[in-house]
Amino acid sequence: MHEPSPDLLKAIGFKIISALLFAAMSALVRQLGDTVPVGQVVFFRSACAIPPVLLIYAFRGELMSAVRTSRALGHLGRGTVSVCGMFSNFAALARLPLADATAIQFGSPLITVALAAIILKERVRIFRWTAVAVGFVGVIVMLIPNFDASRYTAAGVGATAAIGSILAVIAAFCNAGAVIQTRRLTQTETTSSIVVYFSLSCAIVGALTLPFAWHTPSREELMALIATGILGGVAHIFLTESYRHATASVIAPFDYTSLIWALLLGYWFFGELPSTLVYAGAAIVAGAGLAVLWRERRLGISRAPEEEGPRRPEI
Hints:
Elements: H1 6-32, H2 38-47, H3 50-60, H4 63-67, H5 72-93, H6 98-105, H7 108-118, H8 126-143, H9 157-185, H10 191-209, H11 219-245, H12 248-251, H13 257-270, H14 276-299
Helix pairs in contact: 1-11, 1-13, 2-5, 2-10, 2-11, 3-10, 3-11, 5-9, 5-10, 6-13, 7-8, 7-9, 8-14
């Protein structure tokens, strides 16, 4: 029996670290959601992510490739979809338990399969269409508790959860759309430029909202806002590094560890525990997603390294 190679172990380690950092960032967004406007969170998340990303690329001597582009309109299109996804995801995090919002996002790679068949004209056989259908059933199972009419109260508790669920589904669709656009961009653009222009686009749109919705943060809130950007930027670096050492189909399943981190962080910081239906739905979606990854690996389908896998929202 062969032991895993050092590169494979490094890739898996980097992937798990990136999942943990993204989960920690989401926990901070969840904490800030009650007081800080979504646009303000998006601005800090994106703007504060740019410096660490540029620093690491400068250290590698890749700074010019991170800012050079021949497809500005392509980046604009991806940025537009990503901005919608980030706003929707952060708004969902403000309304849903951390684990619930994370679990719903796992429907994104299944949506990507469907969009790839429709937009990119990729050949999708019956096995993967079946997995996509099963995965959507899992998403519906997770959504059932949040659309239970008996939970609606005068305080709008049920309505808040229902709105959060809709926003989480929108974010999953936007993330899938961003993946499709990324596959197009990777034909000519570097991964570093895609990451930089993604953060820049979200920062600009977030900044445009500040005159209309601004909350003067306390010292603790300001530190949390800055931390969201640093965590997100460093997480992207670890994510990119993981794909330098192994193929996407090998390490993408480890992104499901983000649900474990979300469960732990949600319980520790907010006392949140998902319902049985959320556990069941998440298991169905995860199983369908892993089946798609297994099938794609068998078929040798190439995926864009930055966006592959059952993760997450561009956040």
